[in-house]
# Entry
Amino acid sequence: MTIDQQIYALLQEMPPITLDEMSGIRLMKRTDTKFLANKALLLQVLSLAKDDYYVQEIQHKRIARYRTTYWDTDDYKFFRMHQAGRRPRTKVRVRTYEDSDGLTFLEVKKKDNHGKTKKKRTEVASQSEVYESGGDEFVTKQVKQSLNDFHPCLQNYFKRITLVNKGKTERLTIDFDIDYINFDTHNNSNSDQLVIIELKRDGRVFSPIKDILLKLRIKPHGYSKYVIGSYMTNPHLKANLLKEKMREIIKVNNRKPMQLETTAPSAR
# Structure
């Protein structure tokens, strides 16, 4: 089997959880941490985690498809603030849930000086009907600038697996197969074997996945799809601060899976 087929097969071994059941999970004191791996390492993560987690299932599918368009100013203010690590900072995007009847939201994400992220969103008719759905009024209220001050500059398509631990104290999103299309340069790129794991957990309660990631030496690592995708598709952007991060991402992409210890059969 291919690595994608192996990932799919492992997901079929996990019990499902529905969107309605997911809506009842409230992480009141949530902390978010991102980790980077690759598909070979993801196979090991799923193999070790399958007995402790549910997998989200939507319309009989356990791998969901997303499409996101990022909006920025003509001088890429949001990109420059993010890649420089400045806070507070903002991101404006339109996200479509391809497997939920094309449900689409215009979203504004803000990260404050304490590193906490808040997201506001409003439903819009489609990716191309943002203005017609009240998008200008929404953005003006959130960022004190008109939507006319921004333009759609980068779009990505990616796949996502969502896991929930059986104690229902954490969610895990796993993103992969990211394809980037830059509207300003008309360049395309992709994430190759990279996997982005984001752990959203309730405070300091026990986390099964934390032990698994530690065992596999998968370390916390920041990753912004907008920033990295822009860097990969727009050579005109000044992004010297990202060069070291890109070297680290390439290493993760090419990393070999670990040799895990197997328990020897007991003597009779």
User: Anything to note?
Assistant: DSSP finds eight helices and eleven strands in the chain. Residues 69 and 187 are 15 Å apart (CA to CA). The first strand starts at residue 16 and ends at 17.
